[in-house]
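User: I'm writing a tutorial on reading structure tokens. Could you give me a worked example: one chain, its sequence, then its tokens, then a sentence or two explaining what the tokens reveal?
Assistant: Sure. Here is the example chain.
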Amino acid sequence: MAADLSQIVKAYDVRGVVPDQWDEALAALFGAAFVEVTGAHAIAVGHDMRPSSPGLSDAFARGAAARGADVTHIGLCSTDQLYYASGALDLPGAMFTASHNPARYNGIKLCRAGAAPVGQDTGLTEIRSLVEQWSESGTPEPTDRQGTFTRRDTLKDYAAHLRSLVDLTSVRPLKVVVDAGNGMGGHTVPTVFEGLPLTLVPMYFELDGTFPNHEANPLDPANLVDLQRRVREEGADLGLAFDGDADRCFVVDERGEPVSPSAITALVAARELARHGGRGTVIHNLITSRSVAEVVRENGGTPVRTRVGHSFIKAEMAALGAIFGGEHSAHYYFRDFWNADTGMLAALHVLAALGGQSAPLSRLVAAYDRYAASGEINSTVDDQAARLSAIRAAYENRDGVELDTLDGLTVSAEDWWFNVRPSNTEPLLRLNAEAKDEPTMTKIRDEALTLIRS
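And here are its predicted structure tokens:
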């Protein structure tokens, strides 16, 4: 019987419980199918610290080699380190990680040479079909040529490339608390930060895919509590929190207060525009703060608004030659990093900005954090379309209000906006609201929630 991959092949990656939903035998078939669909003669493979990752990545490599591809195995790495290898070596790549998911999960993030994403519309559907076919009919026949295996450590080269993209020469001494969440940040941070005038206070740097301290998901405020407390105890200048595969970075200021990823997007956008002569396109998704587009224009750039999701950001980055892109989920994309996302490079920008002047981080980011925001609020609903229609009906005839459907429904006025998006996988509607001040935001948020939940 063919394997049922409907539960593990997502829009952008493969992800599921090991060994219940997938195992090394399927990983080998994914390796073979990846080579078949991409036509790759050589690939790069890396993995995170989860207990199942070495075996799955080795099986994938064997499947790829059996189809004739030479495999460069870079071993333990962050997801953006795999993207570095894909870009610098000009190879398609496979990263074994389930990011912030619990320990029993694992997955594969795939890309073509130059870190170009592989998703549902760019090869993942074909890969799934081949794996299902082969799982029913048996392993595909080996090709005439067996691929080779090479081990290669790319960590120092990755760190050097990131450091070449940010001017860190004038950084003053800073005390930085870093919470790696027992994820791959504990592997990459010491090498990337080496030699900088930083007093590093490490938290949970031990690589442990069982996540004994807290989930490696800084998007959940509960997972920032330890970092916030430690920043205050240490009198640190800032705190950084990385997710499990260390491709996202969250920032905490000297008071232990979280800094909005939209504010980080605006700050980095201003710096990237300055680095590119005050010109360039910056991509932002539609739930980032209005601050982002304002700061981009103020610094000579052109803001472009997209749907939520890294595939849309990366597609627009490539199509428009954008220099930078940011999402409110703390994914940050750089043209000089093959349009791929790297939280580590965003962290270096924050360090350079803070260390290049004397004000504390809270004062520095205030210029980029101009509005009151609700954060994302999820509501379970019986009928997503009906609720969206009700919201549209409530606002479409109001004076001074505009509606658009780029992604879900966005309702905007001069002093406020909100967006409601349906989940693709759950019976949820996701609300994000923003306004000029807290009372206005609260009023608009509660109006929208009443319509969603009525």
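What the tokens reveal: The radius of gyration is 22 Å. The chain has four domains: 14-153, 157-256, 261-366, 372-453.
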